Amino acid sequence: MQLAALAAFAISAEAVSQGFNYGNMFADDSSKFQADFEEEFKVAKTLVGTSGFTSARLYTMIQAYSTNDVIQAIPAAIAQDTTLLLGLWASGGGMDNELAALKTAISTYGEEFGKLVVGISVGSEDLYRNSVEGVEADAGVGVNPDDLVSYIKEVRSIIAGTSLADAPIGHVDTWDSWTNSSNSAVVEAVDWLGFDGYPFFQSTMANSISDAKELFLESVEKTKSVAGDKEVWITETGWPVSGDSEGEAIASIENAKIYWDEVGCPLFGNTNTWWYLLQDASPTTPNPSFGIVGSTLSTTPLFDLSCNSTSSASSSAAVSSATASGSSSGHSGSKPSGFPAGATGAGAAGAKPTFTAGRGGYNGTAYGNGTFSVRPSGSASGVGATSSGAVSGSGSGSSSGSSSGSSSSSGTSASSGQGSSSSSAAAAASSSGVYTGAANGLASSLSGAVVAVFVALAAL
Ligand SMILES: *[C@@H]1O[C@H](CO)[C@@H](O)[C@H](O)[C@H]1NC(C)=O
Ligand SMILES: *[C@@H]1O[C@H](CO)[C@@H](O)[C@H](O)[C@H]1NC(C)=O
Ligand SMILES: *[C@@H]1O[C@H](CO)[C@@H](O)[C@H](O)[C@H]1NC(C)=O
Ligand SMILES: *[C@@H]1O[C@H](CO)[C@@H](O)[C@H](O)[C@H]1NC(C)=O
């Protein structure tokens, strides 16, 4: 048992996904094209002070403003050797187009696509939007659990026998949607649970940065408690670098770094994690803004990503100093007066995704034509790209790359959250390596091994 556990640990450590969320539009709702995605993926892989951000979570399979054209993040991921947590936008009646785009992607890109897909998410925060909190927050159209279960079955049947056959299928939602027992059929239907949680928005509780790590860990534990033996993947979390406060939570670069150090650093390399997010501030800056590179897509982040201070005393010192002004230090959920539940949109449980960047737009559609910007939660973030750079949107041009062509420099693309990719490390079969960079070729065999070890453990 001990050996088996060690083996499982060693294997899974190799296969862990680490990346960002990426929408299919820029902040002005203009489309992201292949070169834009390539530039984001490349920047993610080459961020100063860190490494390993080689995976991209998408919210939709559909290129922005098309009916069901395949999102250009897929050829971009192939070009940049970036793994994918794919997403299908399930709300708003567009599933048939999502499924059509999924089929087209499989037939067009086949094995080189399949080997990059670490997972597929059927939906994003659809249950949240249908919840009491989501309705109060006017978050948009959602999906009920039974329909999600049907969609999951459809996706299973579509990928059977294809290059994506081994991709584990999940669903992404706010953690308090997972813990709502009315949604248990979805837990039963998935292979893994995608956790979205933002202590920043848990404004009915004491949610200053000094409470954030504890709130995050509590919400993950609550999610795991309903997950049974299924994995919980961290599909969205982050802390804004700018914007209005939410309860005791203050948006600032300093606090975003503390959250990265205390919450992100222990996750990276250990738990599948897609941070929210690389960039959301091009060409305009949303409120709040979560992007770690600011308005210029550059490999130089707004704060030190090196994780050097993780778990050190200095970070907690930083925490207290950062939060000293403001709130009463209460840790135990004292509700800040003046922020009645619902007033700020964050519900009791707090995982509330109302912020603009990347959240579902009107009527829950994730694509559409400019008029209704539908931007699924968490839009754009990119993970590792290699060095050839592609377009930089607004003029940012990150240094390194050579820009290959693409997108115009005017910076118009939009990324709205759809699209995701999943790669199954596990699933993927072929050889070329899911994880960019290192470990090429290991992924597929590793994942098979992981499955085998879990089976062995279960038998014990
Ligand atoms: C729990 O989930 C059900 C089904 O998705 C939803 O209708 C209900 O509003 C949720 N409860 C709360 C308190 O949000
Ligand atoms: C973090 O640690 C690495 C390795 O010790 C070091 O090279 C780097 O300069 C450190 N970064 C910061 C910002 O201290
Ligand atoms: C959303 O759907 C409602 C009902 O179908 C429709 O009247 C409304 O125009 C839609 N809004 C948008 C922004 O598409
Ligand atoms: C968006 O819709 C408008 C009005 O229907 C149309 O004129 C325009 O061409 C559409 N744009 C795209 C990119 O489809």
Automatic annotation (TrEMBL):
Its main location: membrane. It is a lipid-anchor; GPI-anchor. It is an enzyme of class 3 (hydrolase). It comes from the Eukaryota. It catalyses: Hydrolysis of (1->3)-beta-D-glucosidic linkages in (1->3)-beta-D-glucans. It comes from Aspergillus ellipticus CBS 707.79. Keywords: Carbohydrate metabolism, Cell membrane, Cell wall, Cell wall biogenesis/degradation, Glycoprotein, GPI-anchor, Hydrolase, Lipoprotein, Membrane, Polysaccharide degradation, Secreted, Signal. Residues 321-343, 399-425 have a biased composition (Low complexity). This is Probable glucan endo-1,3-beta-glucosidase eglC. Belongs to the glycosyl hydrolase 17 family. It is found in: Cell membrane; Secreted, Cell wall. Its EC number is 3.2.1.39. Glucanases play a role in cell expansion during growth, in cell-cell fusion during mating, and in spore release during sporulation. This enzyme may be involved in beta-glucan degradation and also function biosynthetically as a transglycosylase. Gene3D superfamilies: Glycosidases (3.20.20.80). One of its GO terms (cellular component) is plasma membrane.
